[in-house]
Amino acid sequence: MKITIIGTGYVGLVSGACLAELGHQVICLDVQVEKIEMLNQGKMPIYEQGLDELVHRNVKAGRLSFTSSYEQAIPGMELISMAVGTPSADDGSVDMQYVWSAAREISKHLTDYVVIADKSTVPVGTAEEVEEIVREGSGILCDVVSNPEFLREGHAVFDFLQPPRIVIGSNSKRATETMLHAYEHVDCPKFVMDRRSAELTKYAANAFLATKISFINEMAMLAEELGADVTQIAAGIGSDPRIGKDFLRAGLGWGGSCFPKDVRAIRKMGESLGVPLPIVNAAFETNAGIRKRVIDRLEKALGSLNDKKVAVLGLAFKDNTDDTRESAAIDLIRHLKSRGADVRVHDPVAKVCSRETDGHELEHIACPYETCRDAHAVIIATEWEQFRTLDLARLKEIAEGNILVDARNLFDPARALECGWRHISVGR
Ligand SMILES: NC(=O)c1ccc[n+]([C@@H]2O[C@H](COP(=O)([O-])OP(=O)(O)OC[C@H]3O[C@@H](n4cnc5c(N)ncnc54)[C@H](O)[C@@H]3O)[C@@H](O)[C@H]2O)c1
Questions:
Q1: CB 3.0 to 4.6 Å from 198: which of 140, 146, 269, 270, for a disulfide?
Q2: Which residues approach ligand 1 with their CB closer than 6 A?
Q3: Which residues are catalytic, by number?
Q4: 208-425: which CATH topology?
């Protein structure tokens, strides 16, 4: 099949490369010319396990190409999949400018019937609106389907090729057949439903997962006060299949490129329709207080944060990605800087610019041990696997102080204590 992917970011590039791997002829389009130039030179604009190899293999095989020209990417396609960003607007609703702009551009260059799939996470009713824009703008028949994406950054290639399910929201038999054909070599349940249900399914999934994380963080707060251990509680409840063991890790709460904006969006939807969503709202409120609570515990342990040297290990919002959008680590850093701490940071792949930290320039250090040299306190802010195997005794020798804030519960408290640390973890 001839497929265009609009938006070559975390979702678009992975989708494009995987669809090419499945045998389709794919063009990835992006308005960021530098990104397309990088890709055409064989360089990856993002870090995602296995993506580099997948892209190179499919480019070499002639199935995958990159462009910034709508004129080149739209005519003659059978499927156009939109994966542009849908960030939060200032009021918490969804900023739809990239979706509308992509729809207008498609309409200018369309020559024949096409199926347009919306892979971006978008408010309910978007498929209908995109269809109207493209049909009116081009005068050509098209069908717009909702095809929400559920991949996890850090496991994106695996998730795309071996997903737990694919959701297709469609009101046209012809469009449904095109979508099923596109995914015919992906072996998983495929749920075909109406477009509005598909659009809401994505928000419901993210709101549910965020709520689960907020729930375990509430249990962590209670465990801290009661002398219980939240990791044991998570194991104890997670083994019940009705509950499930995933998304039960207490820590710094949910962040990242999707959960915060998607929870804001569903709250906004509820608010504008007069449908109160007390569970989702509570999950949001709980999450908002978690990082401050961790910093308060550190401040109490140090007496004051002013002029204290604090090493932060981890910037990405989760392991195995370079994505720092709404990362809990960045939120921690903002709190630390606002209380006068001298912050140094290390992450295996992610970097942070001063725009993300209220104008504060941060020193990025390549070695995790060097980051902790003379530090009064060390914070583990991202659950990178390589942090688990850090030599805590060596780290303790290098640091000036003895406070280890293990905000992702990576270390055994007894081992940390043995190495001379005062170990502050979450819910233990
Ligand atoms: N990142 C994830 O883990 C994830 C998972 C599931 C769903 N989603 C959803 O997928 C969508 C994309 O997310 P992402 O993380 O890939 O975003 P991203 O910011 O990494 O990529 C979006 C890309 O779209 C490009 N773009 C913007 N307007 C364009 C236009 N008019 N024409 C062509 N390109 C344009 C941008 O330049 C950018 O490269 C969002 O709606 C997001 O909520 C993301």
A1: 146
A2: 6-12, 29-32, 35, 83-86, 98, 101-102, 120-121, 149, 151, 153, 257-258
A3: 258
A4: Rossmann fold (3.40.50)
> Does the fold of domain 208-425 match that of domain 2-193?
yes
CATH class of segment(s) 2-193: alpha beta
Specify burial of residue 92 (Cβ count, 10 A radius: 0-12, 13-18, 19+): middle
| Spans of all domains in the chain | 2-193, 208-425
**Residue 186 near residue 158, CB atoms below 8 Å:** no
- Cα of 164 vs centre of ligand 1, distance in Å, is 22
Residue of 170, 102, 173, 172 lying closest to 137 (CA atoms): 102
The model's pLDDT over 312-336, given as tens digits with 9 standing for 90+, comes to 999 999 999 999 999 999 999 999 9
pLDDT at 276 over 90: yes
Q: In this structure, are residues 349 and 316 in contact, taking their beta carbons and an 8 Å threshold?
A: yes
Q: Is 259 helix (H, G, I), strand (E, B) or coil?
A: helix
**Residue closest by Cα to atom 23 of ligand 1:** 7
What's the rounded Cα separation, in Å, for the pair 199 and 99? 14
Which atom of ligand 1 is least distant from the CA of 101? 31
Q: What is the mean pLDDT of the chain?
A: 96
